[in-house]
């Protein structure tokens, strides 16, 4: 199986770029951040503080998180409920950042991610795919962009969905997530030593997708 690991900070376009690249390459796309968002949504639904490691960890005994692919499109299910839209709300983003720092949550989702990669040619994106989840992936990419450009992309995405947010709120949230993700004790965000670095600042979406496909083809040639 060919496994491609794409890591990078919030708003770098990992999901959009990885999904499109996977489609063009004939691989499945696995958005691991969606799994953490689902755990975060479960905590929010049950009024559990998402930084409370003990309570969040205890809640894992009562939940199931599944990825199902419908015509090649990933859907995320929490206890049988399709939460693919709910996990994209701003509060779910911060909840995901918080719960992803909890070792019990990472252990809970680890086997699911590895099992998918073992059975499929896939592009998997997240924060620690190349460093922790798939350290033997044939291709590792670290995708990033300037923080203001990443925030603007996320801001436009949220506004299109009808969210009442300001650019400053999105930028502040993104910088907090950047700090939390790169400074957590467990699997901090950082490039794998053998990553291909791709900075998409100033690139169009199509240019970003092509840069990823080029990197994949060069690595597996």
What report would you give on this structure?
The radius of gyration is 16 Å and the shape is globular. The strands form two sheets. Strands 2-6-1-7-8 form a five-stranded parallel β-sheet, with helices on both faces. It has a three-stranded antiparallel β-sheet with strand order 3-4-5. The longest helix has 17 residues, at 103-119. By secondary structure, it is an alpha/beta fold. It is 51% helix and 17% strand. Strand 3 (65-70) and strand 4 form a beta hairpin. The chain contains nine helices and eight strands. Helix 1 (14-25) packs across helix 9 (205-220), helix 4 packs parallel to helix 8 (167-183) and helix 7 crosses helix 8.
**DSSP strand (E) fraction?**
15-25%
Give average pLDDT, whole number.
Answer: 92
Question: Rg, please?
Answer: 16 Å
Proportion in helices: 40-55%
Number of H- or I-type helical stretches? 9
Distance between the termini: 14 Å
Biggest β-sheet description: 5 strands, parallel
Count the strands?
8
Low-confidence stretches: none
Order of H and E elements: EHEHHEEEHHEHEHHEH
As laid out across the biggest beta sheet, the strand order is: 2-6-1-7-8
